[in-house]
């Protein structure tokens, strides 16, 4: 990798929050809210949106439509779980990475790195959040606990993956994709059953690849400091060929989304929005982002995520709505067949 084109990141000085939810909290609570990243909701959406995918997917493949009340209950329950899970994971990550964070401009103002919270206090805080998640999960089918354990394990190894591999984005993507499976299971649909295993794994793979794409773009904000301190990432490994790599990944992501639709027998609205919309959004993001500009990377990370995630979610919701009102694929058919739709009245 050539380091000639890597620009140093600007120094950031900590400023107490003056706007938003965190600014309303007592000063002694602020560092703990910052450990949860309550002031930076982007990562929460990265974890929660796959849960929304799971709701749309479950209602699209289940032979029995879940009730609106159950869907609403699971959507809120998973929101609370994701809020706490993201908080616990970030707290753990900051405790493990405290020495690295002190050397990275964008991260040295984090609570542990700047000395506002001791590592022991952070571990207690992470444990408390994890325990709260377990209590919430008791409301869900018992099988959801299995997926939660997978999320905990992958989240625990994520900070260390940056030390031993250039692919921590794959580990992070796997965390987010397991939440998709957990969300599906929460609606009493088994994503790993004989009938749903293949499309579920295809969507799992597509979501993992998507995370690898947008988190690699995000990681370009810190690539200069990461090279200096020895943190590994796909942005570091493929710095000079990131656009080529992400284009390659985008192709396979959309291919797996399309294969999900074929295997699950989803209708044209899914293909137009989830497959076509995400393909266009990814192409625009990859073409227009300036990887040498941290602000551009941050902007396209946020808005690219919104465009792609919104396209996929719209496709799944459209399919779910069609099925709920009586529109559905003929049994055993997919969009490769000539006649695809009927209406039960």
TrEMBL record:
> Would you name any one GO CC term?
mitochondrial inner membrane
Domain of life, source organism: Eukaryota
Q: Name one Pfam family in it.
A: UbiA
What are the record keywords, sorted?
Membrane, Transferase, Transmembrane, Transmembrane helix
Q: Which cofactor does it need?
A: Mg(2+)
Q: In which pathway does it act?
A: Secondary metabolite biosynthesis; terpenoid biosynthesis
Tell me yes or no: is Zinc among this UniProt entry's keywords: no
Question: Do the record's keywords include Membrane?
Answer: yes
Transmembrane stretches in the record are 136-160, 166-184, 244-264, 270-292, 299-317
The biological processes this protein is annotated with in GO are: mycophenolic acid biosynthetic process; terpenoid biosynthetic process; ubiquinone biosynthetic process
Q: How does it sit in the membrane?
A: Multi-pass membrane protein
Q: State the similarity comment.
A: Belongs to the UbiA prenyltransferase family.
Recorded protein name is: Para-hydroxybenzoate--polyprenyltransferase
